[in-house]
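Encode chain A's predicted structure.
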Amino acid sequence: MRPPPAPLRKKARRIQAILEELYPDPPIPLEHADPYTLLVAVLLSAQCTDERVNQVTPRLFALARTPEAMARLSADEIRAIIKPCGLSPAKSKHIRELSRRIVELHGGRVPRTFEELEALPGVGHKTASVVMTQAFGVPAFPVDTHIHRLAERWGLSDGSSVERTERDLKALFDEGDWKKLHLQIIYFGRQHCPARAHEPALCRICSWAAREAGRG
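Encoded structure for chain A:
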């Protein structure tokens, strides 16, 4: 893959400087205690707000906070608790089955490779990336809907696919910054750069970086 052109790298550095000013130490928005509870929380966050997940997980983890305990629950018991998160029939089955597999195949510990994580039920590349970088410190750039749309809006990627966005952002930013940057962009998207009813001219980044403000 060809390196990004110099003007694009300059734009990326300017964006990063603003994000660093606004969010010098961004917290992980999903409350968790260890890699397993983070994995479950990220799975629950699909098509659901982090706030809602954080309201649901204390009750779930009070009942079962380890893979062993979760695997002993029925899918219906899990579903009754996580129903407010949406997609509960599939999510409850995935949580129970991935817990069982973690116990049977990985000795009760969340696996530490992308391949093993993505082999678990309900765990896609984005979920695996969050766990790998936030729980295990492995360089990864998880791309959620906020990151995908802002990368396109700012002209850092073409918006053709999440996979393309991930490749483009990894090429633009230093590997050591990926973990923080993915959180910084999420927070900026939620608080300053929404998908709708957004005024680019008033945005600290869109006012100069958005495609309609110029491509450079």
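The longest helix spans residues 88-106.
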